[in-house]
Amino acid sequence: MQPIRTIESRTVVIPVTNIDTDQIIPARFLTTTTREGLGKQAFADWRYDANGAVKSDFILNKPEIAGATILVAGRNFGCGSSREHAPWALLDFGFRAVISTEIADIFRNNSLKNGLLPIVVDEKTHEWLMNNPGANVKIDLETTTLTLPTGATAKFPIEGFARVCLMNGVDELGFLLQQAPAIERYESARPF
Fold first, then answer.
1. Which of 93, 135, 132 is nearest to 116 (CA)?
2. For residues 80 and 20, is the Cβ–Cβ distance under 8 A?
């Protein structure tokens, strides 16, 4: 995982509520256990027609979003079934963060464990983001603050352990493995 301290990017807005994990990555693409290549299939049923041709009017197919790493979506993003492939697909597409007023718990947990930052903001901030697609925003994970181009800021919640893992670019197992020397010292000093 790449460490996240700050993310500065234009936003991509998909103003749809209740985007479920099957819309993010359709079930037919869940046959792989690797993350690479899933970005091409992110939102596949929205990005391609029945013959596989690109739908040029869908936002993720527009050239002007190239390089944007922040997705803004409607309420209840990532609902539906649990599939780690959903954050994998978004990360492989190039997103580093998802912003909404509500993010489904299972998707949120899968995102945190895989290096995608799920951000829940207040209604006013969300409305501004929805009405200003392509806005340049700054996310500061250290201060858990989102800054809009207007200078307005919004705090977002994130648990301490998940925040530490994201900031250091490690998952839970990676964090535990980093503790191996201290664990070995403790175990070797312990009387049997």
1. 93
2. yes
